[in-house]
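Here is one chain, start to finish.
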Amino acid sequence: MTETTRQADGAGEPTVQAGKPGLITQVISSKGLAVGAVGLFGATVIGVSTVAPAYTFTISLGPAAAEVGTQAPAVILLGFIPMLLVALGYRELNKVMPDSGTTFTWATRAFGPWIGWMASWGLVIATVLVLSNLAAVAVDFLFLLISQLTGDPAIADLTFNPFINVAVCLLFMVGAAYLSFRDMKESKVFQVVLVAFQVAILVLFAALAIGKAVEGGVNSIPFDANWFNPFTVGSLSAVVAGLSVSIFIFWGWDVTLTMNEETIDPERTPGRAATLTVVVVGGLYLLLAVALIMFAGVGEGEGGLLNEDVVENVFFGLADSIMGPWAFLISLAVLVSSAASLQSTIIGPARTLLAMGHYKALPARFDAVHPKHRTPVFAIVVSVAVAGGFYAVMRFVSENVLWDTILTLGMMICFYYGLTAFACVWFFRRQWFDSVSAFLTRLLAPLVGGAILLALFVMTLSDSLDPTYGSGENIAGVGIVGILGIAILVLGVVIMVIMAVRQPDFFRGRILPVAAPESAKETIR
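Its structure:
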């Protein structure tokens, strides 16, 4: 075993605990990451950073409003519910298996290697896709910020030049990869400063928007509690499309679980941080949604949320009218949000890929940890390289790359979150009725949350085949969002089959055997 590569010690020969037939206790093993580097506060900050409220909201409110109008707050609340339910299931799984592989490890232990591999494929591909979007939004707001500071509107238009856009986007990705390569303690300090700044600016932005709406703006409308009522949305398909966007804006909280081998008190801290992350960003989103609907309305006229200059990037389109000469602050907040999230988002796929390499579901090179910084260097490089390549291609194929990939992301998120929630239900099937708490957190919550998300996945995939879905771009009459979704899943199956031929031990259940512990928990060895 080299200094930077660690095999799954004991994983190939699991032992059985005396008195507990079939209970495997030496499957979960250490991967060489930095132990005890992050506490509850730091993990929550990194969780909020990964969700990236400034980034996600600026590109998501418009598409959500386009589907459900003023009921955008309602679909935000609807999206919050399955996220919270699934988070409870994640917390229970983490208590007994605090492994950086999270979805990959848990779904494999519950359902076997094939489902575990595909569930982790959904996680990895979703995070890789969003990396490209994060960098793209950072580019938009970098040029906007420079334009605002210099007073030259032409600079903001540089982002529409695909060659300049892609080049700067790739530079952002390289910078984020370097920061992710550094140790977790350095990353935590970096994230605390940037998250505090973006949250403060977003709260100020919302307050100013509400104030101007109350004064009576051109498009302003009075607050209506009915905005929180999903039953007033015109159709089920609109609710599903809006929910797909809503799921996306909450996505990222599970990064706190992928850091479980690096947190203080790994059995409890990651789950608590995940719950705190969902609650904090949920409250912030509702405040912003209400504020901007009050200020801009949902019309297509100048300055309205559905205006073509606003809908795809609401902060970009409304900053000047809300903040005046201080508009550059919101641009800086989104730039900071995107850049910070670029770095923190890499944590998830990199540690999942590390676990997959560690347990022999991917080539051994993925099981590489830097001897000094204790970070999964090879997995980081692969994640960023694939994200950069995907964005470069999509930027030239589709002018609406952000909108279409967000909807595709929504499908992938529902897919792997749903499978992970069901993994919790099945893994703890012998403990459902041990107590009221076990019934709620190990059966009811993950079952309902998982069912909602997998139903959304199926409905969204079906709807996305329509050529008018999303941006309306299509190939041979089939919506590009649907094509992307199916292509991603097929590609995952192809790679999985290749790995099954090359490295059969994992796929024959010799590395991470299926097991359903009755009471004892597994520990990292």
